[in-house]
Design goal:
heterodimer, A: alpha+beta, Penicillin-binding protein 2a (Domain 2), 2 domains, 4-stranded mixed sheet, 15 helices, 19 strands, 37% helix, globular, B: alpha+beta, 25 helices
């Protein structure tokens, strides 16, 4: 009998296996539960594959979208719905980087402790850093043109304004199969890349400040064009002898051709990469489009053009915003975020002295070249860009920041095929910033 | 009955929870989620403390006086004598076999001795013990090899005193409290179901929970009135059945009445099998018929079965459909367990292997590979317990592995399940359909669930049987789901602990086999749905919806209950008062009306003081020569202490 009794211990092996299995499952649940919950078939979170819980508001609590029990609603105001379309996305899931898709896990409000159960039964609330009123102002300023407007607080990293056009009212979607709505699902602010044009001179400038010893004493000659490797690099005018400050303010192609040749493709690429133009950025978990910089052969005009933001250069508007934010903040950027009160990490992009110098020159741009009258009551630091597309049209860029303790705002404006940057993008930036500092 | 349910349903469907009441009930439902695991934990910890913490006192049924003057108590209904250290009575000497004699006591208190092996060196009173064994009388001399021993049965008064002294469960841990916790768990679960249910289902849900509640308390009160004391096993079953009732309310609220009827049938099966198991003599008579019945049932199933979800394991008779394999489980364990005399006298294991092969083969033919696997695992447990040979077990596993490969190549849907295993997230709407939904819903519930009756997973096909762990996780939370698994593990610990005191190998083997079967089934069900094992689709004991399964689980529980040897706790034990009425003792009283039996003595004391019998060796006696005197002193001391 004693023998048999001892053999009963066999059952304990099975019991141990059960405990082991449960332990393994617990670990998996702890690690992967948040992913499991987001299965489209999970009816606690989705209805017919559509997110059915949670609420998205702007930074002031204005409801931008809310869902529950099969009822989906967007903002009450039509212009808010249009202006925030790309920031919020839609319940059909057409906008991959909209809050409804990008932050669906927060809207589902999963945590290991309570699962998705909440007392109010309404899921989670995502409070975007966006100011919907500012978005409306930007949308109005775009006035039907395609493009993107970004405004952020460079001290906190919060993106206050993010508009991409074309956009539409999600409550009454138009016929989207027409040319006017081409690429409508793309958030141009984050996920499109454009030729940067002269805005890229800020990158070449950063490389030059740190690598060209006599940068501040040298005189840059401009005769209206310069011959490089058998080709001609044209300038916007005949600028004569200039300091580097004047060369930037004139956006002188001759001067930046000279610097590009001197720095070389490797250094230019290094700076483009270091300043965040070549990698996909992480904006509160949203992956942005990575830009590109093709290294041209030394001594060719291609190399000159690549330092001027033409050739095959491509950048995402958000990367430009991040760079000018870094300049505004003394070289160390607060990473841009889209959720209120969720401060971004800090990343050092530039030496303080470099950033300060670039900032100075961006201010000089305005006073020397653009005209302070364009930006009443704004201590504007900026760089315009007009990216030639080779078909006679060009993208209009304007990027920079205002030096204002109360309103530490950085901005980037791009208008697709919008003509000259200063003529078209700068007034738009002014309009939005005026709305922002009110 | 129908009319009554109808009117209750209509009455309860009316109120709408709006305004302040609605808010209050909403809060109550939300915060009661946190109470559920607390109540469940209270139930389990009560049961654990009651079953595992209370020390059992060893029983003594007779003595053997060894040549050295050593008196060894026989502490089981079945004892082995031999030179092996693992023998119950170790005797070393020339020509003593490792296991030489088996002494077996019957329910009436008379003993028989059986000699093992063909060696003629085993005798009783100088005569060779015949094959069919010999009855033992007080003072009989047993001979093994060159050693003589004397057998003494217990006297009636000794017997009565032992019965008196045996630990009765429930003294330190009150069974009332245990059932009260189960009741609290039931009430919370009912409230959540009631609150979240569609109004038209409130009536049937309420009545069913009321019936469960009443069934539990009536069972308890009736058993209590009959003098029973141990209720942990039943409390665990009622706890699991409450969860099962909740799953039913979520998935098929119209079947609540059916669920109640099945529960009552299960309890009846539990009581019936339990009482039947009390008498080993009649139990033994039914072993062969049980095996035959099992085979017949499976053959009928094969011939007349209905196919359902790819497995032909259902029979429909007159509108009632059931799964014969669930009932075969009971017969399989019944036929697999054996008393010691059979165990040691060869050939039985071979018969059992053939019987097992038929059962597993028939199930495989039906396409019910999950159940076939459960049977096979149970076969391993039983054959190990019977033979003690790891080699046999490994051989069987190898054989089964080969058979498994064959099954994989023949049955494509089995191979598919293996292929999907571990890759369910790569095909969420195909091979991983059920598992991904189970994981998603289970995670959604967090630790406390979204609320009983508020989940959605039951809408997935067959979820209320195959994915119950996830349904429970989703609605009642991960903690309650884990505690449901823990409940079965506690049953296993209980069974193993009882095995040390086991009276007959039949109870020990049957109990261990039953609890192992439950655990294997549980493991396949839970881990299959969670993608830790291939998906097999067997049931979660007591919780999965399914009448046959529920009844079978209660019946299997009787085997577990039967291992309990505490006083008045189980079916297999009787109180001393009833024992005294037995003829055998009356006879003995007439024969041994000697002076010493009639003198007052305090009975047996704390046997723990005797030390460990496992290392018992002839010549080193922990006993005082006159142990009655010794015991007398001990017990007096103890009595004063109380």
């Amino acid at each position: 009998m004693k023998k048999i009794s001892r053999r009963a211990g066999f059952a304990l092996i099975i019991a141990a296996a059960l405990i082991l299995g449960l332990a393994l499952y617990s670990v998996r649940l702890f690690n992967d539960g948040d992913d499991w919950v987001m299965l489209r078939a999970n009816q606690s979170v989705f209805k017919d594959g559509v997110l059915d819980t949670g609420m998205v508001t702007d930074r002031n609590g204005v409801v931008l979208a809310r869902a529950g029990n099969g009822v989906f609603a967007y903002a009450d105001d039509a212009s808010v719905r249009i202006a925030c379309l790309h920031a919020v996305g839609d319940y059909a899931g057409n906008f991959g980087t909209g809050a409804l898709s990008a932050f669906d896990d927060e809207l589902a409000h999963y945590n290991f402790f309570d699962g998705v159960a909440t007392l109010s039964d309404g899921g989670g609330t995502v409070r975007l850093s966006i100011d919907s009123a500012l978005n409306v102002a930007a949308l109005n300023a775009l006035a039907g043109r395609r493009g993107a407007v970004l405004v952020s607080n460079y001290e906190t990293g919060e993106i206050l304004c993010m508009v991409s056009t074309p956009a539409y009212d999600p409550n009454s979607p138009p016929e989207l199969e027409q040319p006017a709505y081409e690429g409508v699902y793309l958030n141009r602010a984050l996920n499109a890349t454009y030729a940067p044009g002269s805005v890229f001179k800020l990158v070449t400038l950063a490389a030059a400040i740190e690598n060209v010893p006599d940068i501040y004493t040298r005189s840059f000659e401009c005769q209206g064009s310069v011959r490089v490797g058998g080709d001609t690099v044209n300038c916007t005018g005949v600028h004569g002898a200039q300091t580097i400050e004047q060369a930037l303010a004139n956006s002188c192609n001759c001067a930046f051709s000279e610097l590009s040749q001197e720095l070389g493709a490797d250094t230019l690429e290094k700076y483009a990469k270091q300043l965040g133009f070549l990698d996909s950025l992480d904006i509160s978990g949203i992956e942005t489009a990575a830009g590109s910089f093709e290294k041209a052969e030394a001594g060719t005009s291609d190399l000159s053009w690549s330092g001027i933001g033409q050739y095959n250069d491509l950048v995402a508007p958000i990367a430009v915003l991040r760079y000018v934010s870094a300049v505004a903040a003394g070289g160390t950027v607060k990473e841009p975020v889209l959720i209120k009160d969720r401060k971004g990490n800090e990343t050092k992009l530039l030496e303080y002295s470099t950033a300060a110098k670039i900032g100075e020159m961006m201010s000089y741009n305005v006073s020397y070249s653009y005209g302070t009258w364009r930006f009443p009551e704004l201590d504007m630091h900026a760089k315009s860009g007009t990216a030639e597309l080779g078909d006679g049209s060009s993208h209009a860029w304007f990027a920079g920041y205002i030096d204002d303790d109360e309103h530490p705002l950085a901005f980037t404006v791009i208008i697709e095929r919008g003509g000259g940057g200063l003529a078209n993008a700068a007034p738009l930036a002014n309009t939005v910033l005026q709305a922002a500092i009110k | 009955m129908e009319g009554f349910i109808e009117s209750v349903s209509v009455y309860l469907a009316k109120p709408e929870f709006t305004g302040a009441l609605g808010i209050f009930l909403g809060y109550l439902a939300y915060f009661s989620r946190y109470m559920l695991p607390i109540a469940a934990l209270a139930i389990i910890s009560r049961c654990v403390r009651s079953m595992l913490a209370e020390s059992y006192e060893p029983e003594v049924w007779a003595y053997l006086d060894l040549p050295g003057g050593l008196r060894v108590p026989l502490r089981h209904f079945e004892c082995t004598v031999g030179s092996a250290k693992s023998s119950d009575v170790v005797v070393q000497g020339a020509r003593v076999l490792k296991t030489h004699l088996v002494l077996i006591r019957d329910e009436m208190g008379s003993w028989r001795v059986y000699a093992l092996g063909s060696d003629a060196a085993a005798g009783i009173n100088g005569v060779v013990i015949p094959d069919e064994g010999a009855a033992l009388q007080d003072g009989d001399v047993l001979t093994v090899g060159n050693k003589d021993m004397r057998f003494f049965n217990l006297t009636e008064s000794e017997r009565a005193i032992i019965a008196e002294r045996r630990t009765a469960p429930g003294k330190t841990i009150s069974p009332y409290a245990m059932f009260s916790y189960v009741a609290i768990f039931q009430i919370i679960t009912w409230f959540q179901q009631f609150y979240y249910a569609a109004p038209e289902n409130r009536g049937s849900i309420t009545l069913a929970f009321l019936a469960l509640f009443a069934a539990m308390w009536i069972y308890f009160i009736v058993m209590r009135a009959m003098g029973r004391t141990g209720f942990e096993v039943e409390a665990i079953a009622f706890f699991l059945c409450t969860i099962g009732m909740s799953v039913c309310a979520s998935s098929t609220p119209r079947n609540m009445l059916k669920q109640v009827v099945l529960l009552l049938a299960g309890i009846a099966a539990f009581c019936a099998l339990g009482s039947w198991l009390r008498d080993l003599k009649r139990v033994k008579k039914l072993i062969k018929p049980a095996a035959v019945a099992a085979v017949l049932l499976l053959l009928i199933n094969l011939a007349l079965g209905t196919e359902y979800f790819g497995a032909k394991n259902w029979i429909s008779i007159g509108g009632i459909s059931f799964q014969p394999s669930e009932f075969v489980k009971i017969a399989y364990i019944y036929a697999g367990a054996a008393t010691m005399d059979r165990l040691y006298r060869g050939r039985n294991l071979l018969m059992y292997i053939m019987f097992s092969a038929i059962c597993v083969g028939a199930l495989a033919l039906m396409g019910d590979f999950g159940t076939a696997l459960v049977f096979f695992a149970t076969f391993l447990v039983i054959s190990f317990m019977r033979s003690g040979s790891i080699g046999t077990v490994l051989l069987a596993v190898t054989g089964a592995g080969l058979a498994g490969f064959l099954a994989l190549s023949v049955k494509p849907h089995i191979a598919q399940r293996f292929a999907a295993w571990g890759h369910v997230w790569e095909d969420v709407n195909g091979a991983g359909y059920q598992q991904t939904r189970a994981l998603s819903a289970a995670a959604s519930g967090g630790l406390f669930g979204v609320g009983a009756g508020k989940g959605w997973l039951q809408t997935i096909i067959a979820a209320d049987t195959d994915l119950v762990f996830a349904i429970v996780s989703e609605e009642m939370g991960f903690l309650v789901a884990v505690l449901a698994v823990a409940a079965i593990i506690v049953l296993a610990l209980f069974t193993v602990k009882n095995a040390a005191q086991g009276r007959s190998s039949f109870y020990v083997i049957a109990g261990c086999a039953a609890v192992s079967m439950m655990m294997v089934q549980l493991g396949l069900n839970v881990f299959g749905s969670l993608d830790l094992l291939p998906f097999t689709g067997v049931t979660f004991p007591f919780v999965s919806i399914g009448g046959s399964s529920l009844i079978s689980c209660w019946a299997l529980l009787a085997f577990i209950k039967a291992t309990d040897t505490r006083k008045n706790a189980s079916f297999t034990t009787r109180d001393g008062g009833k024992m005294r009425d037995r003829n055998e003792f009356t006879l003995r009283r007439e024969r041994y009306m000697g002076a010493d039996e009639q003198t007052e003595f305090g009975g047996y004391g704390d046997y723990d003081d005797y030390g460990d019998y496992a290392d018992f060796d002839a010549g080193v006696s922990p006993f005082v020569e006159d142990d009655r005197h010794y015991l007398d002193g001990k017990s007096k001391k103890r009595r004063r202490g109380r």
